[in-house]
Structure formats: structure tokens, C-alpha cells
Design brief:
36% of the residues lie in helices and 28% in strands. The protein has 11 helices and 20 strands.
């Protein structure tokens, strides 16, 4: 893997990011496709397809090739990856780049090998795999080679990977279906039950980003949203408060903290002691929720921090391996499932 344009891919449920050696992050696109159901033709991929959500005609469907950190549609995943990689490296006969791909720690062997196969036609000469928790830890600046334990919680769109890492291995891990999309669904349900207001996925995400919170904000924020009133069946604009969104997110935040607690319960005593001293590191776009690190720290009585650039930590970890392949290639796999204690 010595080419100057080798790439690292973070294939996520919500977004796909690509890092190119020597250039940094060169692609950041939603992992979504728009397909004509009559002809099975792909109409749009990435940002263009994302803008169509909630606005498609009856003959067009929005497809998410990955759900809850798992590939649900291999053919669509192949097409999406092919499109993204071709956009970055172009169509080549010679000088094809090698690829490092990050996957959730709980990905099955079949999923790992299928993804390696899917990149064969996308101008990539070879693919090695890097466990997502290790990549996230590297990108967050953690020392994964030391004998001391580190706990990293990577909150993605469909799944949250919670892992205890020591000496370059995931010792205890858990992949829970409690990511950013779960937060969005909680907001949709809350507004439907409390205000009889039906909103879409994009509106729920905007509410979460702009006024969402895991703990009370110092001052109340407001956001005007338009949805459909379930009683009258007509469009209605309503002012939503940050307290409303915090109330909606209480349950998913609580479940996330319980999942972290469950991993700690299965962590060897010496490593648990390290974590209680050094704290928990949050990565992934979901960790940007206001006050989430405070909620985790207050409940578990363990220091908690958010990585400097949490949304890019995983792909930056892959980039670190690309830039230091001689030293860090030992963390790359060949498609075989890693062994670790799954909570």
C-alpha cells in the first residue's frame, strides 16, 4: 500500500467519508440513494438523494443501504461505494489505489468479505479492514497500544459502538442500535404524542442539531417547524422549545448510558480502574448533542469528553494508518471476524 492516492473509507449508516493519503478527507456524503422502483434505476446518490427525502414521487424510493450498522442491501451498497470511490479516484486501468475500510466491531465475516468483493470493480486494487473502534480511538488521539484501558463510545447514525481497548485490541465491545436516527425517531414520536404534530426525518434532525440537549440548556432556545396536524390534517407551524427536545431525548440518552454501564460491568477490574481514572471518550456525529458528555459523566461518575472532531474521528483513524502504514498495518484485517467479548 505505497501509492500516494490510497484511500480510507468510513462506511457509516448515515454518512460515508473517504480519506485520501496526503490530501485528507476528500468526500463526505450521506449514505442514501434514490431509486426509480419501476425501472430499478438509480436516480441519485449521496447529497442529491438526501435532498429528495420526503419529496419523492410515488415511483421513486429513498433507500438506505445500511441500517443499524448492518448492510441490509448488498447490491445498493456496492453501487453506492462504486459511485463514491469513482468520484474520488476516477476510472483507472493502471495505478489503482489500495483501500482501508472501517466497519463496526460486530460486523459478521460475510459482511466483511462482501464489502471487500464490492470494491473490486471500483478502481481499487486491494482492500484491508480496520475495526471501527480502533479507527475511532486513533482518530480521537487515544493511545491504543498502551497497556492501560480506554473506553471509546462511537455514536453513529444507526448504531453506537462501545469498546474497551487495550494493547491494540478491543477487549470488551458492544454494538447497540441507539444512534442518531434513534434520537430523531424519539423526537418525531414526542411531537406526535404531545403536540399532534407529524414532522419528517430531516426536520427532526434539524431540531436535534440546533436546539437538542441531553441536559437543561442555560437558556431556552426556540425553533419554528412546520408539520402536519394530525387532528385537522392541515400543515401547521409550531414553535418548539429546547425543553421539548430534551424531554424527547431523555429515554434514548438514558438507554445509551445504560449500554455504556453494561460494557463497564463486563470489563476486567484493572482496565475498569484505568477508565475510571482517564474517563470515556465520545466520537461520532451523535456525540455533538449538547450536554451529552455531561449527562454521561454525571450518571456514571466517570470523566467524559468529546473528541476534537468527533464526526471525522473514524476516517481520520484510517488516514493515520495510511500515513503510517509501516507502523500501524498490524491493526488491519483480511475479512475475518475479530475476537472480543461481546456484551
Amino acid at each position: 500500500m505505497a501509492a500516494n492516492d490510497d484511500i480510507g473509507i468510513d462506511l457509516g449508516t448515515a454518512n460515508t467519508l473517504i480519506y485520501m493519503k496526503g490530501k485528507g478527507i476528500v468526500l463526505r456524503e450521506p449514505s442514501v440513494m434514490a431509486v426509480d422502483v419501476d425501472t430499478n434505476t438509480v436516480m441519485a446518490i449521496g447529497s442529491e438523494a438526501y435532498r429528495m427525502i420526503g419529496r419523492t414521487p410515488r415511483n421513486m424510493a429513498i433507500i438506505y443501504p445500511l441500517k443499524d450498522g448492518t448492510i441490509t442491501d448488498f447490491r445498493s451498497t456496492e453501487k453506492m461505494l462504486h459511485y463514491f470511490v469513482r468520484n474520488v479516484v476516477g476510472k483507472r486501468m493502471f495505478g489503482k489505489p489500495a483501500c482501508i475500510m472501517c466497519l463496526p466491531a460486530g460486523a459478521t465475516e460475510m459482511e466483511r468479505r462482501s464489502l471487500i468483493t464490492s470494491l473490486m470493480d471500483a478502481s481499487v486494487r486491494s482492500t484491508r479492514l480496520l475495526d471501527k473502534p480502533l479507527a475511532s480511538a486513533l482518530g480521537a488521539g487515544l493511545d491504543i497500544e498502551g497497556v492501560y484501558g480506554s473506553l471509546i463510545c462511537d455514536i453513529g447514525g444507526g448504531v453506537t459502538d462501545i469498546s474497551v481497548i487495550s494493547m491494540g485490541h478491543v477487549i470488551v465491545g458492544s454494538s447497540v442500535k441507539n444512534g442518531g436516527y434513534y434520537f430523531d425517531d424519539a423526537i418525531i414520536r414526542h411531537l406526535r404524542l404531545k403536540h399532534n404534530l407529524l414532522i419528517g426525518e430531516r426536520t427532526a434532525e434539524e431540531l436535534k442539531i440546533h436546539i437538542g440537549a441531553a441536559v437543561p440548556r442555560p437558556e431556552t432556545l426556540y425553533m419554528e417547524v412546520t408539520g402536519r396536524h394530525l387532528v385537522y390534517g392541515l400543515p401547521k407551524t409550531m414553535r418548539i422549545t429546547s425543553e421539548d427536545i430534551q424531554e424527547a431525548l431523555e429515554e434514548p440518552v438514558s438507554q445509551l448510558i445504560e449500554s455504556i454501564h453494561a460494557v463497564l460491568e463486563h470489563t476486567p477490574a484493572e482496565l475498569a480502574s484505568d477508565i475510571f481514572e482517564d474517563g470515556i471518550t465520545l466520537t461520532g456525529a451523535g456525540s455533538l448533542l449538547f450536554g451529552l458528555e455531561e449527562a454521561v459523566a454525571d450518571t456514571l461518575k466517570i470523566p467524559c469528553k468529546v473528541a476534537e472532531d468527533p464526526a471525522s474521528a473514524t476516517v481520520m483513524g484510517a488516514g493515520m494508518v495510511l500515513e503510517n502504514i509501516g507502523k500501524l498495518s498490524k491493526y488491519l484485517g483480511d475479512g475475518r471476524t475479530r475476537n472480543f467479548t461481546q456484551v
